[in-house]
Amino acid sequence: MKTLNVDVAVIGGGTAGLGSYRAAKAHTDSVVMIEGGPYGTTCARVGCMPSKLLIAAAESVHNIEKAPAFGVHPQGDIVINGREVMDRVKRERDRFVGFVLEGVDEIPAADKISGYAKFLNDHTLQVDDHTIINAKRIVIATGSRPAYPGVWNELGDRLVVNDDVFNWDDLPNSVAVFGPGVIGLELGQSLNRLGVNVTMFGLGGQVGPLTDPEVMAYANKAFNEEFYLDPNVQVESMKRVGDQVEIQYVTKSGELATILVDYVLAATGRRPNVDNLNIESTSLALDERGVPTADYYTMQTSVDSIFIAGDASNQIPLLHEAADQARIAGDNAGRFPEIRAGLRRTKISAVFTDPQIAMVGETYKEITTRLGTCGCFETGTVSFENQGRSRVMLRNKGMLHVYGEQGTGRFLGAEMIGPDAEHLAHLLAWAHQNKMTVAEMLDMPFYHPVIEEGVRTALRDLNAKLRLGPDMIKHCLDCGPGC
User: Fold this and answer.
1) Counting C-beta atoms within 10 Å of the first and last residue's C-beta, which end of the chain has fewer, N or C?
2) Is 8 within 8 Å of 136 (Cβ atoms)?
3) Domain 2-146+271-335: CATH superfamily, name plus number
4) Where in this chain does the record put each Pyridine nucleotide-disulphide oxidoreductase dimerisation domain (predicted)?
5) 153 pLDDT tier (thresholds 50, 70, 90)
6) Which CATH code is given to the segment(s) 348-479?
7) pTM for the complete prediction?
């Protein structure tokens, strides 16, 4: 068996692994990256990029369907060619993966170790049955994988996860989606708009990542206008019947219903890929899920020489977060023992449904946990149903809640569902990271007519409730009509 002695070993070749490798390389040439599967990121292969390709196809259909409301009437029936839809998804997906692989190809071959790593102790890894690596420092960047109840495996190839969807050659007739989270909502709504009969189920009443009860209730209502969604379903049975799956469940009205679907799409969350690393051979402290605990600002675990980054850290499973964590973990592994706190940006997340969902800064749940409901914060609100630009575009669905701290007037965070929420969230995230007060945010320029005027309305409502500004004036003249 071959033996290597290195300064830094990075386990994983995805977003976090590649970022950690490059950051560590800035300090030492003695760095290796270990990858057992195909190189390329979850985002490019089976995550954010292929899902947005499917969403784009669905949006094109939806825009044609709502054109008559503008007095524009397309001639003839809308024909959705599932094979052509999936062909473009896969072609463009492969193109994005190719960009990632170009970067991987630039890494020296000697720095890339093929195989799956397991810990022998805090400083030693074994890669398959061919290499022992003695590393002064180690970065765990093994990513995550879909998680679902093991009993569902009895459904065989009728059970799919998001990874499988992007390998379809054609669109099915029907799908039951379990899990109305980010993945479930995005794929479920897209498939529905592309002509697939979608039924969506959840447990516990959760819709998307939202924590604000009012915003979540609006989201539940909005999606139910397009397809059946029960976020707290009672499933009586689920079994394979030929090439379909039979599901018996109790409807929201309390009746027993039975459906047959071509596929069950499991979108019930993801599990950090740390359970096959033989972590029990280390002295790492683990959380309740068996994931190594780590400092939020340094990504250093309980073992000084071991760092963790990306989805494997079980902190915030988003690409931009994985990239930031990788930069911090790799930099600290490379410069060890001189550890530095890295920049952790304001939290921002988006769900690319229609209307979109977005969250910025502290969530409603985090704020109420920290401050309680004693009046230490207030909520400003706006509805997009009568917001001027939103109505012009017939995209007038949604609501925005912004949160501010009593006394200081500091902007704490926001949760929303609405048009162009991805862009509104960025504006609010920049304000939050700069620790702006609500009054300072209101001093910023707002054009007319734009959807962003809805943000101003919510901020004015919040400022009035914080007793730091005048009471809200309905249809204020300086806002222009429809604000």
Assistant:
1) N
2) yes
3) FAD/NAD(P)-binding domain (3.50.50.60)
4) 349-458
5) very high
6) 3.30.390.30
7) 0.91
